[in-house]
Each structure stands twice: as structure tokens, then as C-alpha cells.
Specification:
Elements lengths: L29 E15 L2 E14 L9 E6 L3 E12 L4 E4 L4 E4 L6 E3 L2 E6 L8 E10 L7 E3 L6 E11 L2 E8 L6 E7 L3 E11 L17 E11 L2 E4 L4 H12 L8 H11 L5 H15 L1 E2 L1 E3 L10 H7 L1 E2 L1 H14 L4 E6 L19 E8 L2 E5 L19 E5 L5 E5 L9 E11 L2 E10 L1 H13 L6 H8 L7 E8 L9 E9 L4 E3 L2 E4 L21 E2 L4 E10 L5 E4 L4 E4 L3 E10 L2 E10 L3 E2 L4 H15 L3 E4 L1
Parallel strand pairs: 1-11, 7-18, 17-19, 25-32
Antiparallel strand pairs: 1-2, 2-9, 3-8, 4-5, 4-9, 6-8, 10-15, 11-14, 12-15, 13-14, 15-16, 20-21, 20-23, 21-22, 23-24, 25-26, 26-28, 27-28, 29-30, 30-38, 31-37, 32-36, 33-38, 34-35, 35-36
Length: 631
């Protein structure tokens, strides 16, 4: 039976998973016969020695997934990999082949992201159908705050998974299981003369397959997180990670190591910016915009350097930094001009944990700044170069923030979900008709996360495509003969509250003409029309990055010599979390379509799939309605 202890429901998903039995199955190409981690903790005068022995044995049931023979073992400043033994056993011939070459590489160093993380890379030799690979190695953990997590399930079926931890009796271990309700776990506590031993064993664990628009894997993957709570020496109990207080105490001790020297230039920049504004909010916004526009985001993970912000003077001089560097720079600049601001630790939406659930560094992976203006807590993230002041990064919405008030005091505060009206796209389109083709002039004004999404795609996904190719893929207006001309994009910097995109369209063969009648559909933009959920196949909730609204005003100029013979009736779907309203009016030789779509949720639960599909189906039905004009 699974040990029922401290289980909390996780309410968000990014990478939803599909379960299937791990027993040998002809439909499975690859499976783990065994996955074992054996953690041994020794303690001597406050000095921890932690060794994790890993054993993985796998079978290639078919020859379809031989690429799994390529192995990569990660390590960093807090871990070392030792004593690697890797072999391939071929049952048909009885041969046993050993890996004879292992390459060590730096995993990231591309100018945007630097990490001290390295990898041991090798390939199991001679792998073919029926082969069994066997891997053993030791991971030396040098920092007692990082015991990590163990996944009972993974990307392939697992016949047997075992986690074992052995620790001295003067050490207390904490642990928490996540998403283990669907598997059977045998949990045992044992004692030796000087140690306690905890063992979790499970069999026939399902494989996991991702789904589109779902929360990250850890939202559903059965796993367990371990941490050292405390230890006792000389009748004194020394805390490590008992609770959030201990985690914050450690974070605060690292923050004390921030280089706070030579801040004269940083303070001068903050003063020069702030003197041009009257209110604290205006000053804070201007300083935030300056950091966004002048400091380039470059991620670093380098031992404790991945946790200790670099000095504000260094970041300001070099003009680059990672999340904690930019957070600290904002903290220094804002406080200097009298605006109370605090370093803030937070997990992105990829991390499904609360601080009280997991008081370890596993809970967060990001740092931002919290500032308080007129009793309003504002979360600001210098790494998000295009989100306006007053809005958090979309990927931190709903997340619990650990706000460091002082070295001894912190508060936990949830980042609010931003309402849909803050992320609005207003689309105004003028359409004319001639010889079966239409011409259109369109202007889109984007705010909030709608603006951020477009800018991000425009800068990083457009790549070598022309602007027309990019818009054809991104907007997909009209039909496959749509041509974009006279494309104009307003300045992209975050200091601008809106982003304006304007262009002209030519769409051939769009209208259908029968005799003297012509049928035209004014819905050249069919947003959400491909968002129907497969209720039979989908297992888990649908993730939505942010709430939003789209408001369309489409004006069709009735050609001279034509009269309007049919205009669609109004149609709407008024749901609590999502809906639309489309209606038409005629005046002064024009047909004007008014269309509004809103999404007021970040998640569509499985029990709401049918309601979501009803919404999408009714929207598609509305999109099919056309006007009819006649000569």
C-alpha cells in the first residue's frame, strides 16, 4: 500500500501524462526492468557525506527505439559522477559488451545561458532488438540542501522502481510523495545499529506520454522529494530544512554574500531616472523600464553563484545578468530612491509545489523583485523584457512568492492571475470587394501578455522568414492565397503600453459568386477554431498561458451597385470562464461585424471538456456565417 502522508492535490498541469502498464507488451519498444537509487548519508562533526548509487537496467523489446542507447548523465558543482559501469548484454549470443569511451561535456554555454552543469556522454555498444543494457554509477552530493527527487515513473514503462535512503539515527529525514495515487508503493522502515533505512518499492509503473497544451511533467509524474530536516550533535539540534523558515534562513545567508560595494554609479542612475517623476509608481516604472532595456538577460548556473546575486555595480557595468542579478539590481535601485522593495524567490508554473509542501530549493527556480507602492504589492521581473510594469511575468501567475523582508523575516504571497482585460487585442479591419477578391486594411493594438507573446514570436521565432511569411504562419488570415503588404510594427520596448501591428491584405478567390449573388465571410480571423479537445483521448487538463480578450470591428464597404440581401443573426456563448459575442449592423452603405472573444481561466479541467467543446463548436458555427450581397 502507498504510505498516505502529507499528500496535497496539485491544481495545475503543463505536461499531462498517459499511463499504460509496464508489463512486457508487444506494443512497447523499450522498458526499464529496474530503476534503483540507493542514498547513503554519513555525518561527521557537522560534515555530510552523501552518496547516491544508481542502477538502471533496460530491455529493447524491439529495434524501434535504439536511440535510447545514447546515455547522458548530468552533474554540476554540487554533484560528482564516479564509478560508471555500463554494459550491453545480448541474450541471443550471450555476449557482454562494455562501454569503453565516456565523453565529458559542458551542457550549456551559448552566450545566453551559461551553466556549470556538465554531462557524461556515452553509447551502449551493440544494442539491437532483445538487448539488455545495464548502468551503474555513483553520484556524490556535496551540498546537503540538495537531495533532489526520485521519479517512480518515467518516459518508458518500469517493471520495478526502488528508492532507498540510509541515514544516521541523529539525522531526521523529511519526504513527500506526489501523484502516487495510481500506483502501489511498498514503504518500509528498518533500523541497523547506527542507521535508519527507508525503502520505497513499486512495480509495473506506467509510462508517460505528453499532451499538447498541458502543464509540466511533474504535475502528474509519480515522484517523491527528500530533504534533510535536521541533525543532532552534542545534544544540540541543528536545522537544515525543517520548514520554510530554514529554507529562507539559508537563502538569506546567501543573500548576505552579495557584493554591495561601489554602488555610487548605480545610485546615480537611479537618482537621475527618479528625479523626472513625482509619484513612487512613476519612479518605479521608469527604473524597471531602464533595467529591461539596458540589462541583457544571460542565465548563469555556477555552483553557489547560481544562488547568490552578482553585485549591482558589476551588473550595471557589464550590462548583463541573470534573474537574480536583475532582481537584485532593481532591489538596490528602487530602495535607494525610497521605494520599499524586496528580493523574492519564486517557482515558475513548471514547478507544482508550495513552500510548506516542499521546503527545499526544488520549490523555486527563479528570482524577481517585489515592491510595495500605496499598500499594493507589485511583482516585477527584469528578465521579461516586454511585459509592462504592474504585471508579473505570465509564467509566475498563481505561484507562491517568498518575499524576503529582512534577514530574519519573510512573507509568502501568491502572485495574482491577471484579468483578461489586461491582455487585450483590438482588431479593426476595413474590407472592400472587387471581382471576387477582397482587399483589407487591418490594425491590431495589443496590450499585456498578448503584446508580449507577439513580440516574443516576432523576435525569436520569425528568424529568417520574411514578415509576410511570419504573419501568414502566426495569424493565418483568410485563406492560403492571402498576401500581406505594407506591414508596419510599432516600437517593441516595454515602456510602450501597447504594440500596434498594421498591414494590408489581398485575398484571392475568397468570395463565392453565384449568378448575381456574392457570398462573403467577414471572419477572416478564426481564432480558437482549432482548439477542440479530443474528449476520448485526452487524459488531463488543458493549460492556458494567460487570460485574454480579442475585440474585432470589421467594416465591409458594400460595393456600388450592390444591395445587401442577408446578414447573419447575432450569436453568442456566455460562459463564466470563456465565451464570445458576434453581431452585425448595417449603416451608411456598410456592414459592420462586432466580435468579442474572452478567456477568463488558465485551465480547462477534464470535467469541463464538454463545455469547452460546446464553446468552440458554437464559435466555429458562428465563423461559418456569411453575408450575401446582390447586384
Amino acid at each position: 500500500m502507498t504510505t498516505s502522508y502529507l499528500k496535497f492535490p496539485i491544481l495545475l498541469l503543463f505536461f499531462a501524462m498517459h499511463l499504460c502498464l509496464a508489463q512486457k507488451n508487444p506494443s512497447e519498444d523499450f522498458r526499464f526492468l529496474e530503476r534503483t537509487e540507493n542514498i547513503k548519508i554519513n555525518l561527521n562533526k557537522g560534515d555530510f557525506k552523501i552518496v547516491k548509487s544508481v542502477h538502471e537496467k533496460a530491455e529493447y523489446v524491439t529495434a524501434n527505439k535504439l536511440y535510447f542507447a545514447n546515455e547522458m548523465l548530468r552533474f554540476d558543482s554540487f554533484t560528482q559522477i564516479e564509478d560508471i559501469e555500463a554494459t550491453t548484454y545480448l541474450p541471443d549470443s550471450g555476449k557482454k559488451l562494455e562501454v569503453d569511451y565516456i565523453e565529458t561535456k559542458h551542457e550549456f554555454d551559448d552566450g545566453i545561458f551559461y551553466s556549470d552543469q556538465q554531462t557524461k556522454n556515452f553509447t551502449f555498444p551493440g544494442v539491437t532488438k532483445g538487448a539488455i543494457t545495464d548502468l551503474k554509477y555513483k553520484e556524490i552530493i556535496t551540498e546537503p540542501h540538495f537531495l533532489g527527487l526520485f521519479r517512480f515513473g518515467t518516459y518508458a514503462p518500469t517493471q520495478k522502481a526502488v528508492l532507498r535512503i540510509e541515514f544516521p539515527k541523529n539525522v531526521e529525514i523529511g519526504y513527500r510523495e506526489f501523484h502516487t495515487e495510481t500506483i502501489q508503493i511498498d514503504f518500509k522502515k528498518e533500523e541497523t545499529k547506527d542507521h535508519n533505512v527507508y525503502t520505497w518499492t513499486t512495480e509495473n509503473v506506467a509510462k508517460f506520454a505528453s499532451e499538447d497544451d498541458a502543464e509540466a511533467a511533474l504535475y502528474h509524474l509519480p515522484h517523491i522529494i527528500l530533504h534533510i530536516k535536521n541533525y543532532t550533535e552534542n545534544d544540540k539540534t541543528i536545522p537544515v530544512l525543517n520548514n520554510v523558515d530554514d529554507l529562507y534562513s539559508w537563502y538569506a545567508s546567501l543573500a548576505k554574500q552579495v557584493d554591495e560595494s561601489d554602488l555610487k554609479k548605480v545610485h546615480k542612475i537611479a537618482e537621475d531616472i527618479a528625479k523626472n517623476y513625482k509619484t513612487d509608481r512613476e519612479k518605479a516604472e521608469a527604473i524597471y523600464n531602464w533595467v529591461q532595456e539596458n540589462i541583457t538577460y544571460v542565465a548563469f548556473e555556477d555552483g553557489l553563484g547560481g544562488f547568490i546575486p552578482r553585485g549591482a555595480a558589476s551588473v550595471c557595468k557589464n550590462r548583463y545578468g541573470d534573474c537574480k542579478d536583475m532582481a537584485n539590481l532593481l532591489y538596490v535601485m528602487l530602495n535607494h530612491v525610497g521605494i520599499p522593495s524586496y528580493r523574492t524567490w519564486i517557482g515558475t508554473r513548471d514547478r507544482p509545489y508550495l513552500y510548506d509542501e516542499v521546503p527545499t530549493p526544488m520549490v523555486d527556480n527563479h528570482m524577481i523583485t517585489a515592491t510595495i507602492i500605496d499598500n499594493d504589492t507589485i511583482f516585477i521581473d527584469g528578465t521579461d523584457s516586454y511585459v509592462n510594469f504592474g504585471m508579473p511575468s505570465s509564467f509566475t501567475q498563481t505561484k507562491e512568492a517568498l518575499i524576503g523582508i529582512s534577514p530574519e523575516k519573510f512573507v509568502l504571497k501568491k502572485v495574482p492571475v491577471q484579468p483578461s482585460e489586461k491582455s487585450k487585442t483590438i482588431i479593426n479591419t476595413q474590407i472592400t470587394f472587387e471581382d471576387g477578391n477582397i482587399k483589407a486594411s487591418e490594425k491590431r493594438v495589443m496590450t499585456g501578455y498578448e503584446k508580449v507573446d507577439f513580440v516574443t514570436d516576432y523576435l525569436y521565432k520569425k528568424k529568417d522568414n520574411t514578415e509576410e511569411e511570419f504573419l501568414n504562419t502566426t495569424l493565418a488570415l483568410g485563406n492560403n492565397k492571402t498576401k500581406y503588404q505594407n506591414i508596419k510594427v510599432s516600437p517593441l520596448e516595454s515602456k510602450y503600453k501597447t504594440l500596434t501591428l498594421a498591414f494590408d491584405l489581398q485575398i484571392e478567390s475568397y468570395a463565392k459568386t453565384i449568378g448575381s449573388k456574392s457570398i462573403l465571410n467577414l471572419n477572416i480571423d478564426r481564432a480558437l477554431s482549432k482548439q477542440k479537445i479530443d474528449v476520448e483521448q485526452r487524459k488531463y487538463a488543458k493549460k492556458i498561458d494567460h487570460q485574454f480578450q480579442k475585440e474585432y470591428t470589421t467594416t465591409f464597404m458594400v460595393p456600388e451597385g450592390y444591395k445587401v440581401t442577408s446578414v447573419p443573426k447575432p450569436i453568442k456563448y456566455d460562459g463564466k470562464a470563456y465565451g464570445f459575442d458576434i453581431h452585425y449592423e448595417q449603416k451608411d452603405g456598410k456592414i459592420i461585424q462586432h466580435k468579442k472573444i474572452y478567456i477568463d481561466t488558465l485551465r480547462v479541467e477534464k470535467e469541463d471538456f464538454e463545455a469547452w467543446n460546446s464553446f468552440v463548436k458554437k464559435l466555429i458555427k458562428a465563423y461559418k456565417k456569411s453575408i450575401i450581397i446582390e447586384k
